[in-house]
Amino acid sequence: MPRQARVIVPGLPHHIVQRGHNKQPVFIEDRDFQYYLDNLQEWKHTLGLEVFSYCLMTNHVHLVVKATDELTAIPQLMKRLAGRQTRFVNKIEKRTGSLWEGRYKISPIDTDHYLLSCCRYVELNPVKAGMVDAAEHYPWSSYAAYSRPRLPLIPDEACHPFHAKAATDSTAKLPPRQAA
């Protein structure tokens, strides 16, 4: 049975989730997180993508990304990020094999309300997981980049005023998704 094709809609943001193989840690040390973010920064510019939000958890990644008009930009981004991170970790740990579990999951975001909900969900992920008590205390998310100007800003500044509404209340419940 052939696998189902991913739905990618040029011009819309997408929520992407990629998990570590067997839910094992992908990021152990700060250098692992930083290497992934450096690659995200590089490939976002190379492929002409907009990054609305991100969160690197220890065993998975959340991204909210928009490709303006190139259908292959998001798959290329994910291929480059996964490949580089796998080679980086395999070299350090003197191991072989996949770092990631299967294919990444992707969902188009078709309304501003849903975009705000996704950004909030992504940035509150460490709070919900009990890793920190407030989103600003987790250094590997776009929330940290927005709240600490000394960090490199991977999310596009053009998204910042819109995005700021999404992360103002770390205790807020996400509204249910509305049908378009």
Fill in the keyword field for this structure.
180 residues; alpha+beta; Alpha-Beta Plaits; 4-stranded antiparallel sheet; 5 helices; 37% helix; 15% strand; disordered C terminus
Characterise the protein shown here.
- This protein is α+β, with helices and mostly antiparallel strands.
- It has one domain: Transposase IS200-like (Alpha-Beta Plaits, 2-Layer Sandwich), CATH 3.30.70.1290.
- Helices cover 37% and strands 15% of the residues.
- It contains 5 helices and 4 strands.
- The chain has a 4-stranded antiparallel sheet.
CATH-level-2 architecture: 2-Layer Sandwich
Q: Quaternary status of these chains?
A: single chain
Helix/strand order, N-terminal first: EHEEHEHHH
Percent of residues in helical segments?
Answer: 25-40%
- CATH class category label: Alpha Beta
Q: What does the radius of gyration come to?
A: 16 Å
Structural class by secondary-structure content:
alpha+beta
Strand order of the largest sheet: 2-3-1-4
How many alpha or pi helices?
5
> Mean pLDDT score, rounded?
84
Q: What is the rounded distance between the termini?
A: 31 Å
* Overall number of domains: 1
Low-confidence stretches: 165-180
The number of E-state strands comes to 4
CATH topology: Alpha-Beta Plaits
The description of the largest β-sheet is:
4 strands, antiparallel
CATH superfamily: Transposase IS200-like
